[in-house]
């Protein structure tokens, strides 16, 4: 009886023939030579591939879930509930509202995009209440996008005539030039409400303390763990980390954003379960390595 097995190795151009003849096993290796070609597949990246596929499936599932009209609740965030209060306060006091995205980001940063989504809701409410919205920025591209966002918000509110393009302006590309200019605006205009939402660096505490000194209600949010500490102590409400990204979906109820938030939550649960399982497994069997990738 003759049985023939052929094994090939992709990474080492090698042909291994195993012959089993009357119960005896013979291994014959042919054409053994190093292969400079790394091959089309890296085995060490397979876990990353599997995780990417799982993430893609979760995202598609979340999109299907939200678009099918099923109920999807987002935990209430105090800072977002206060948006209505901040706009109403500025309106009642006959004062203005100041909104700035910080110095640290350009239009491509996720925090700037999330800030634009929140600005859309704020602009719609200020147009509805006929409250002045001041938007200073350090970037001319952000200024142009913000002008369009605010204009669209005024149109949604049914008051396109309340769009004031001169109140959305570029001031300086210098970090402390920007901080000094916004400080001056806060001191002179004394807005009743201040929104500090976006990417902030060293200017965060300067702006937050100035707003605090005039008694303005302040809502702040950023993804910088360093600057969050300053916002927490100096502002009334702070959106911490991912709350800033969830805020746009919370306020707008946009289905695409809600599906993204749901997918992120599911992926976080999957990662947490994996970490717990790997920790227990590694404790019971320290020599195991399957969970390392």
Word description of this protein:
- It is a single chain.
- The chain has 293 residues and is an alpha/beta fold.
- The chain is 51% helix and 18% strand.
- The strands form 2 sheets. It has a 6-stranded parallel beta sheet, with helices on both faces. Strands 1-2-3 form a 3-stranded antiparallel beta sheet, with no helix packed on it.
- The longest helix has 30 residues, at 255-284.
- The protein is elongated and about 65 Å long.
- 33% of the residues are buried.
What would the keywords be for this entry?
single chain, 293 residues, alpha/beta, 9 strands, 51% helix, disordered N terminus
In short:
By secondary structure, the protein is an alpha/beta fold.
Strand and helix order: EEEHHEHEHEHEHEHEHH
Rg is 28 Å
Strand order of the biggest β-sheet: 6-5-4-7-8-9
Oligomer: single chain
Main sheet properties? 6 strands, parallel
Average pLDDT taken over every residue: 82
Treating each run of at least 4 consecutive H or I residues as one helix, how many helices?
9
Explain the layout of strands and helices.
Elements: E1 2-9, E2 14-21, E3 24-30, H1 46-67, H2 78-92, E4 96-100, H3 110-129, E5 132-137, H4 140-156, E6 168-170, H5 175-189, E7 193-197, H6 203-213, E8 217-222, H7 225-234, E9 237-240, H8 243-252, H9 255-284
Parallel strand pairs: 4-5, 4-7, 5-6, 7-8, 8-9
Antiparallel strand pairs: 1-2, 2-3
Helix pairs in contact: 1-9, 2-3, 3-4, 3-8, 5-6, 6-7, 8-9
